[in-house]
Amino acid sequence: MLNKSDKRSLFEQLFKKNYSRLCGLAYQYLNDIEESKDVVNDAFEAVWNKFHTLQMDTADTYLMTIVRNRCLNLLEHRKVQQQYGASFTESDLLEEEMDWEDRERILEKIESVCNELPDKTRYILSQCYFHRKTYKEIASELQITPDAVKKHIMKALKVLREAVQKSE
Questions:
Q1: DSSP string, the chain
Q2: Keywords in UniProt for this one (predicted)?
Q3: Reported pTM
């Protein structure tokens, strides 16, 4: 069992050895320096939290896997946001033509539909869009897969779109 000083020293060595390389890897996926640093920092935090069970001979590979998976999850999250952002932009353009009573009616409809969503779906939608959590973060919290999170989001957005279209 490592004492705190030894643990800190080993972690520092691991950090110095891998930080720049992992930032480069993340940048290849994300093309954003700050996001890349955030992903790498999150990966090191995950390693620190599991350091007592970490096998040092596979630590480099483990870190690379964490960074790659977090980047892929972030890219998937961006893709979904862009996909549905476009449909909301279109509705924003239509909204400019609406008077305040129509907007209020649609907002009330959206709120009503959200309240009718299953608790888990409503929670996931809230965490994703209001709290800006990634699918992976939500999946980890709820102990489900990122694909399950994606299905909840897709379901919720479909229901919301249909409700708004019906109310127009």
A1: ---HHHHHHHHHHHHHHHHHHHHHHHHHHH--HHHHHHHHHHHHHHHHHTGGG--GGGHHHHHHHHHHHHHHHHHHHHHHHHHHHHHHHHHHHHHHHS-HHHHHHHHHHHHHHHHHS-HHHHHHHHHHHTS---HHHHHHHHTS-HHHHHHHHHHHHHHHHHHHHHH-
A2: Sigma factor, Transcription, Transcription regulation
A3: 0.52
